[in-house]
Amino acid sequence: GENVEQHPSTLSVQEGDSAVIKCTYSDSASNYFPWYKQELGKRPQLIIDIRSNVGEKKDQRIAVTLNKTAKHFSLHITETQPEDSAVYFCAARSNDYKLSFGAGTTVTVRA
Amino acid sequence: DTGVSQDPRHKITKRGQNVTFRCDPISEHNRLYWYRQTLGQGPEFLTYFQNEAQLEKSRLLSDRFSAERPKGSFSTLEIQRTEQGDSAMYLCASADLAVDNEQFFGPGTRLTVL
Q1: B49 has pLDDT over 90
Q2: A42 → chain B, closest CA residue
Q3: What is the SS3 assignment for B39?
Q4: Is A34 on the interface with B (CB under 8 A)?
Q5: Out of A60, B9, B25, B72, which could bridge B52 as a Cys pair, Cβ 3.0 to 4.6 Å?
Q6: Per-residue confidence (pLDDT) for residue A97, from 0 to 100
Q7: Which residue in the set B31, B42, B56 is minimally distant from A103, CB to CB?
Q8: From CA A20, how far away is CA B19, in angstroms rounded?
């Protein structure tokens, strides 16, 4: 089955700086890679996703890059704000449609 | 609220008791997923349905766990003879197969087994 590894497990950044989270996956058949943000006590919410036929996608301050050859993908948050503080999960989905999640990255934005 | 809903939000039970959780997906979503999330970890896939058919079960889903989606709408997850290791957040998600990019998650049911 798919195995997704996520690094780092915790990330502290100064407000206004950038944050980068990296994930690797094992199943070369995986073709869809969403990123979820989960605030304390709340449900995971999709913030951005990328399909395997695209190398990069951007939505305002958030961008995701995908390297299919190396089987890794990354989340980039620029100009971080206090409300970006949360746990971020990467995931990979293969043809059977179930998501395999990374262990999560706790992001703290220092004011 | 037209999102995914789950009931109850919290459940405290004693070891050995049976518990049942309910998930109401977004209307007309034909895919429904159950995940388990423990503290400090990402959600782990348990099982999923397409309409009323249960298509896959994870090996995490022991014989004590059973899930149903009898009419292809809401789903229930039952845990029999609960153990302390079952304590976790149980998340439900739904998706539309025709627009299958996003799984929308419910708020979860937090189970504590004493």
Answers
A1: yes
A2: B107
A3: coil
A4: yes
A5: B72
A6: 77
A7: B42
A8: 40
